[in-house]
UniProtKB/TrEMBL annotation:
It comes from the Eukaryota. Residues 1-24 form the signal peptide. The keyword Membrane applies. It comes from Lentinus brumalis. The chain crosses the membrane at residues 122-141. The lineage of its organism: Eukaryota, Fungi, Dikarya, Basidiomycota, Agaricomycotina. Keywords: Membrane, Signal, Transmembrane, Transmembrane helix. This is Uncharacterized protein.
Length: 188
């Protein structure tokens, strides 16, 4: 069955999907006549991008001038960094619902983009109450279900049409089964 045997990877699901949706909703497009408020929002986002430390991004550091100039046509490499930095870039000038969406996305993408768990003990402690009654795989998948549900709740509050018309939201519900079958989504 191609629907069950083909997992949707992090690039198309998280980066080119949810991160790009929130990026477009948070930042006015470039190359058009902007209002004073939109120009201020773009300038503010650019200033925040310049000021943030990129030490933890590794080889995915952001070229700020490029990202701001071509903000509507970024690729997965750029969006990977945006997924990590978005909460800091937009945390002070977006409305509460959009900020909540960035927070939920950052939690979800951290769980989904993980390629391996280095300190398994610390990971288990973060979900210790489930670890007492379940196996490790069940604990991780239950935590992922909670993160997915939280993300859905926030996104539906921000823009209900996304959940109805963007197919990636449907695919996200199947992600725990893909992880159980194929391993961490960060690998494919």
């Amino acid at each position: 069955d191609p629907h069950q045997d083909t997992a949707l990877g992090r690039l198309h699901l998280v980066l080119l999907g949810f991160t790009k949706y929130l990026w477009a909703a948070s930042l006015p497009p470039s190359g058009c006549q902007l209002t004073i408020g939109e120009k201020a929002a773009r300038d503010d986002a650019e200033a925040w991008l310049h000021s943030l430390s990129q030490a933890g991004l590794g080889d995915r550091s952001v070229r700020v001038d490029y990202v701001m100039r071509y903000c509507s046509s970024l690729v997965g490499r750029h969006l990977h960094s945006i997924a990590q930095l978005g909460i800091f870039i937009f945390g002070h000038h977006t409305d509460k619902t959009l900020l909540d969406a960035w927070i939920a996305l950052s939690r979800l993408s951290a769980a989904l983009i993980t390629e391996m768990i280095k300190v398994i003990k610390a990971f288990i402690v973060s979900v210790w109450f489930l670890a007492q009654v379940c196996s490790l795989t069940v604990v991780i998948l239950k935590r992922l279900h909670v993160l997915i549900d939280d993300f859905f709740d926030v996104v539906v509050t921000f823009n209900p049409t996304w959940a109805m018309y963007k197919s990636k939201f449907h695919h996200l519900t199947h992600t725990p089964q893909f992880i159980k079958r194929f391993g961490p989504i960060g690998l494919y």
